[in-house]
Design a protein that fits this description.
Helix content is 40%, strand content 23%. The chain is an alpha/beta fold. The chain binds arginine.
């Protein structure tokens, strides 16, 4: 009897350790869903939609993990990951050396570039000639970093930082700012979704940047799992399918 219960105990311990190692079957993900077409809330269903959402759900499927996604504030994403509230972040997050000090990134999964959004009729064609102008940006984004550099160099009057892309766009619409510095695919989706907005963008204005899935530096095992899942999704055509769904010609 004693032997049996010792055996049982061993079995329970082994099973418990096993399921912890597998993340208990759940991948806890955070995003900020104000970044169409990468992540947004469907107005009809309230569901989280977009390229990133499809991609991380596909990653979960490969890994046999249930994907739970929370929509939280952009500026709170990395702190929430560092707190241990989430296993990973996917939110069109550009891999930068500064962010790599705080978190690990998966292999790049998307190539992007910044653009300048401005009012129709404004004589602005890029990052040159912005002296005296006001830029609106989402706080702590690559658009913010680029605008801040220009302002420091005296090539821009000031930077107004907003919590969301929608608020930054609105600032230009109402004339509180002259330009938004933002990821080009997001500018495209915004202009498409808001055809009445008197805005356009001027095309690529900087070097390309690359989005990665952010993982806590303490969780190298998950980082490797995510990278191998991404590789599998690229090899088996799923990545291409998701890409075509959101960025294909039709
Ligand atoms: N790619 C830019 C950056 O990493 C902007 C990302 C904003 N993402 C979002 N979900 N609002 O700084």
């Amino acid at each position: 009897m004693k032997k049996l219960s010792a055996l049982l105990l061993t079995a329970i311990v082994v099973l418990t350790i096993g399921s912890v190692a597998l993340g208990q079957g759940v991948l806890k993900v955070a995003t900020e869903a104000g970044f169409m077409p990468f992540e947004y809330v469907d107005a009809q269903t309230g569901e989280l939609m977009g390229f990133d959402m499809d991609l991380i759900r596909a990653v979960g499927e490969v890994l046999g993990l249930e994907v739970q996604i929370d929509n939280i504030a952009w500026d709170g994403l990395i702190p929430a990951l560092l707190n241990g509230n989430y296993d990973c972040l996917i939110a069109g997050i550009t891999i930068t050396p500064e962010r790599q000090q705080a978190v690990d990134f998966s292999e790049p999964y998307f190539e992007s570039v910044l653009t300048v959004v401005t009012k129709n009729g404004a004589e602005i064609s890029g990052l040159d000639g912005l002296a005296g102008k006001i830029a609106a940006v989402q706080i702590n984004t690559t658009g913010d970093f680029a605008a801040s550099d220009l302002a420091d160099a005296g090539e821009l009057k000031s930077v107004s930082r907003y919590d969301t892309v929608a608020d930054a766009m609105q600032a230009v619409i109402i004339g509180a700012a002259d330009v938004v510095l933002i990821d080009l695919p997001v500018a495209n989706a915004y202009l498409q979704a808001n055809p009445a907005a008197p805005l356009h963008h001027v095309g690529p204005v900087a070097d390309n940047e690359f989005y990665g899935i952010a993982v806590n530096k303490t969780n190298k095992a998950l980082l490797e799992q995510i990278n191998s899942a991404l590789a599998e999704l690229k090899a088996n055509g799923t990545y291409e399918q998701i890409f075509q769904k959101w960025f294909g010609a039709n």
